[in-house]
Amino acid sequence: SQVPCLVQNYSYSPPPLPTHCVRRLDHHRDEVWFASISHDGRLLATSSKDESIVIWERNPSGPGFNVTEVLLAYSESCSALAWSPDDQQLLSASNCTICLWTLPGSEARLVLSKHTDPVTSVTWLPD
């Protein structure tokens, strides 16, 4: 049998992009710059130019989300978000600072502010 060549034999048709808004989440006072869905799909974290992070919980009885937390720790916009593997903690980054949040709770559990350049990404290791 002939081994397929990905360069010549591969084709992909992506699914169509959404063409209409299915849900509008109105809580931020300015542009939303980043969103991250928890691994279990129950929570959504959004960060905005308004310097806040909003934690939304999926409404179990129907479509939509409810606000469960508003996190305020920065004097600048948040640039990255990442859920822990167990969805109990959230990392956020803004300029030269990283915050670790344990939810529920609106106080950062740990603030790392020794970076000398802007932090543009955060992630968790599996262990």
Give the arrangement of secondary structure elements:
Blueprint: H1 6-9, E1 32-37, E2 43-48, E3 53-58, E4 65-71, E5 80-83, E6 89-94, E7 97-102, E8 108-112
Antiparallel strand pairs: 1-2, 2-3, 3-4, 5-6, 6-7, 7-8
In short, what is this structure?
The chain has 1 helix and 8 strands, in the order H-E-E-E-E-E-E-E-E. With 127 residues, it is mainly beta.
Beta-strand share of residues: 35-45%
Order of secondary-structure elements:
HEEEEEEEE
Report on the biggest sheet: 4 strands, antiparallel
Structural class: mainly beta
Would you identify the regions where 5 or more consecutive residues have pLDDT less than 50? none
Report the helical percentage: under 10%
In whole angstroms, the N-to-C terminal distance is 42 Å
Shape: globular
Strand order of the largest sheet: 1-2-3-4
Radius of gyration: 18 Å
* Rounded average pLDDT: 86
Extended strand count: 8
Please, could you describe this protein's structure?
With 127 residues, the protein is mainly beta. It is built from one helix and eight strands; from the N terminus they run H-E-E-E-E-E-E-E-E. It has a four-stranded antiparallel β-sheet, with no helix packed on it. Strand 5 (80-83) and strand 6 (89-94) form a beta hairpin. The longest helix has 4 residues, at 6-9. It is globular. The model has no long low-confidence stretch (mean pLDDT 86).
